[in-house]
Specification:
- There is one protein chain.
- With 421 residues, the chain is of the alpha+beta class.
- The protein has 2 domains: 259 residues, no CATH class; 139 residues, Protein Transport Mog1p, Chain A, CATH 3.40.1000.
- Helix content is 22%, strand content 24%.
- Strands 1-2-3-7-6-5-4 form a 7-stranded antiparallel β-sheet. Strands 8-9-10-14-13-12-11 form a 7-stranded antiparallel β-sheet.
- Helix 1 packs across helix 3.
């Protein structure tokens, strides 16, 4: 896929995590929300979406996180130039290497590491490229061609971005077959993921991923597909060319270290606001719904501030979620503009309700929500869907909870005792 197309697709996918009014930003605060969205998009879509989702957090675009999207023929050792208008402002100097490791050398490393198959249609960048080093191509082992891509970078190994890179996504938001996150003997953290290119499974293109973050801040991210391109190619084999164990061996190989050592260290990432204290969102939601008496089929969460319950009173499964988004102490009033037209309650809480179509591809899915902005700036979003997940088909005509009940949950007296005014 040409870089300009890859860029547009990445921006589109990143935008899936946000609506025009910002009401589907997942996480507690804008920067943390973008990182969480980045991690989920990384799991679902590959390195390009990951890189561009991180533009607003730590300049990761120039740190070499943009992976190969795959596509086109021939050997392309220098991808299309980055559109100047889209170059993000950087915090400090670009972390670009000296160029000691070339695109051709990275191609040689990948060919040396591959346990089987021939590599063709290579795309690569060396350490002197301001977009960061990467290499990828098509593997042909005689059982069907598949694409593979590697991106290399440096990040703060103790930062929130590093944490998010090696966390398994919620199964409520991301369909996948397996995911593990482990700490290796040398202190590195490793994510191994078997999932799909499209969250709604409209095409059965599989995307497998291995990501490692080392104690010194090396980041090696690999992804592979059971098709010749990331998108728009028919499935050419049942699974990607390499087993997940082989993918692990490749990302943890020391043969990448010369390139990684040529990149300046990322330095310490800016620390976000202190974590919210108190009960996790999932526990709060379950407590608030206890009096409804509706059976809980399953529970899930994505961090402390986003919890999910699937309810079923016998008429079909229905997803209900609670997001808690505290105000950003460095930038008070984070959410104020979203409630400009909201109704205000006597205690100063502002609230909105909405009914709209689902946005994640599930057939017939509707999304009802109630949002509240507490006087102290905390934003609460209670959502309900007429399906088990946002990307699965509808299981019932309407969500299990009526809009009035969602409003009651979002404006519950519980929030005054939990957070004060």
């Amino acid at each position: 896929m040409p870089f300009e197309d890859e860029l547009g697709e990445a921006l589109r996918r990143t935008g899936d995590g946000f609506t025009a009014e910002g009401r589907d930003l997942v996480g507690a605060g804008e920067q943390r929300g973008r990182r969480m969205v980045a991690r989920r998009r990384a799991a679902m879509a590959g390195g390009s979406a990951l890189a561009l989702a991180l533009i607003g957090t730590a300049g990761a675009y120039a740190n070499g996180l943009l992976g190969t999207g795959g596509g086109g023929g021939g050997v392309n050792l220098a991808a299309s130039p980055e559109p100047p208008a889209l170059r993000p402002p950087m915090q400090g100097a670009h972390r670009v290497g000296t160029g000691a490791v070339s695109a051709e050398q990275l191609t040689g490393v990948l060919k040396q590491l591959l346990p089987q198959g021939d590599l063709s249609d290579v795309e690569a960048r060396g350490t002197g490229d301001e977009r960061g080093p990467m290499v990828g191509g098509i593997i042909d082992d005689g059982e069907g061609k598949g694409r593979i891509g590697f991106s290399l970078g440096r990040i703060d190994p103790k930062g929130e971005m590093a944490d998010d890179m090696v966390k398994c996504p919620s199964k409520t938001t991301t369909k996948y077959d397996s995911c593990t996150s482990e700490k290796l003997a040398d202190g590195s953290r490793l994510l191994l993921f078997k999932g799909y290119e499209y969250p709604d499974r409209r095409v059965d293109t599989k995307c497998w991923r291995a990501t490692v973050v080392t104690p010194q801040g090396f980041l090696v991210d690999a992804q592979e597909w059971n098709a010749q391109t990331q998108k728009d190619s028919p499935v050419s084999r049942p699974t990607p060319p390499l087993t997940i164990a082989q993918l692990k061996a490749l990302v943890t190989s020391p043969l990448w270290h010369p390139a990684l050592n040529d990149l300046p260290a990322a330095g310490q990432a800016e620390r976000g606001p202190a974590p919210r204290q108190g009960l996790r969102a999932g526990a709060i939601l379950e407590e608030l719904l206890r009096t409804d008496g509706i059976p809980v089929v399953s529970r899930d969460e994505d961090g402390a501030d986003l919890g999910y319950l699937v309810l079923d009173e016998g008429k079909g499964k229905s997803l209900v979620s609670l997001q808690i988004q505290p105000d950003n102490p460095k930038h008070p009033g984070t959410w104020a503009d979203l409630f400009a037209s909201a109704e205000t309650l006597p205690d100063g809480t502002k609230f909105l309700t909405r009914k709209q179509a689902g946005e994640k591809g599930g057939a017939g899915v509707v999304w009802w929500s109630a949002e509240a902005l507490r006087p102290n700036g905390t934003r609460l979003i209670v959502s309900a869907f007429n399906a088990e997940t946002q990307s699965s088909k509808a299981t019932r005509k309407e969500p299990v909870l009526p809009l009035q009940r969602l409003k009651e949950l979002a404006t519950s007296p519980k929030w005054a005792s939990e957070y004060g005014q």
